[in-house]
Amino acid sequence: MSNQEMPMVAIPLPKGKKNAVQWGCVCMMLSVAMYGLVFATLTAPILGEINAMEYVSLFSIFAALGVSIMTPIGGKLGDLIGRRNIVVVPGIICAVAGIAIAFVRSLWPLMALRLIVSLAQGAFTAAPYIIVGLINEKKDTPKAFGLLAASIAVGGFGGSIIAGILTDMGLMTFAILMPAIPLLIGVFLIGTNLPNVKKDGKVVIDVAGIVALVVTLCGILLALNFGSTVGWTNPGVIAGFVVGIIGLVALVKVEEKAADPLIPLKLFANKKYVAIMCVGFLGYFYQNAMNVYAPIGAMQVMGATTAAAGALQMPRTIITMILPAITGAWVAKKANRRWVAFAMGTLLVAIPMIMMGFTAPAYPILIYFVALAITGVADGFRSVSMMPGAQATLEPQDIGIGTALINFVNSLAGTVAAAVLGVVYNMNTVADPTNVANIQAGVNAVFWVAGIVSLAGFLLVIFVVRPQMTVKEEA
């Protein structure tokens, strides 16, 4: 590597080490996707073995809550203890807890282990995105992010299918152990090839900020999750929102005074960064509609078989495995193509959601297959533009926490969408949740809301993000 090239890369590495670290990041994301889809597939069989099916919802909440809590904390801890350490230490903890789940068959230890897995994942989930941004030149990051996006698609799709096959063969233990394999490979590759770059000087951990963030997220997210099932006027739900809001106020106050804040409030003064963060939230909102309500529409309204409903996302998954490598190379050629990728990543979600908003008993299920395939194209554009675009707006010292916050907001979009779309669906089905006409009205309302939210993201790109990126490019 020449002296002229080295200043362009935050962490310059020899080619061999760089490739090893990059493949380590791919393995980490494979594992993240596999853990998510494997446990989504196996939650019912795991809890069914111990006659605890009534705890399926709580088991899933623990999974989402841990990631939501630790994603912003993990980004900051990476700044403080080093990029290598934030992969190696939580990665090993995640692998140990994940392996233990394969052998534990007692409810509350299982709950605790699932929470540990999700907390550890949250700590390192943003790290691969940060690391590939540090070891690559800016012009190469879209291609690198495309590779990470493809690995998520492969890990999720392959992990769920293999887990299902192994479980049907009576090998559920091996299915649960499976995600630990790429995780440990990733930990080894990154741990042995990446220098542990961290902030100079004394390490200061913002304990007060962490406590305030945990209180905020637990209060608000648990209230959102339970509100749609036990009622929004339930005293516990109201108390959760109150505690969460108090925690949020305390978090802002604490972070204003902190010498080394967990969440630097100055990031929210960066209009370009905030705009991209908002696009990310609006762009990820639709996924709950796709994952939860598309199968309901297919089976309960159109009368499709379970097998057909289960296959709805297959064309989309194939596209998300292949397309990011192509779109990443396309975006990398010209910086001003990034806003076009943002626009495609939102518009190509709004259109299919609205297409699915006309669901009826005679509606061809082929339209669902086509619509969801189009969302795969949208993901192919968004995955190679979102993180590089956000990182390009940040100062080098803020890339870690800035990237983690983008990941956090994207995951938060799913939690908020679950609550909002649940309310929308229930409003249409509350009279008789088994009536096909009511289900049809509820599903269509959900898709229209998801489409309108995605369209709002497209308009934000056109009228806010595009002028910002165009001005920067001209400058």
Write structural notes for this entry.
The chain is an all-alpha fold and 475 residues long. It has 3 domains: 11-200, MFS general substrate transporter like domains (Growth Hormone, Chain: A, Up-down Bundle), CATH 1.20.1250; 207-257; 266-470, Growth Hormone, Chain: A. The chain is 78% helix and 0% strand. Helix 12 runs antiparallel to helix 19 (436-474) and helix 18 runs antiparallel to helix 19 (436-474). It is globular and about 65 Å long. It starts with 14 loop residues before the first helix and ends with a helix.
List keywords for this structure.
475 residues, mainly alpha, Growth Hormone, Chain: A, 3 domains, 0% strand, globular, disordered N terminus
CATH topology type of the largest domain: Growth Hormone, Chain: A
CATH superfamily of the largest domain: MFS general substrate transporter like domains
Query: What best-fitting shape do the alpha-carbon axes yield?
Result: globular
Using only CA atoms, what is the Rg?
A: 22 Å
**Count of separate DSSP helical elements:** 19
**Major beta sheet summary:** none
**Beta-strand residue percentage:** under 5%
* Domain count: 3
Number of strands: 0
What's the overall average pLDDT, rounded? 83
Q: State the CATH architecture of the largest domain.
A: Up-down Bundle
Terminal Cα span: 29 Å
Summing up helix and strand content along with how strands pair, one would put the structural category as mainly alpha
- Unreliable spans: 1-7
Helix and strand succession?
HHHHHHHHHHHHHHHHHHH
Helix content: over 70%
CATH class of the largest domain: Mainly Alpha
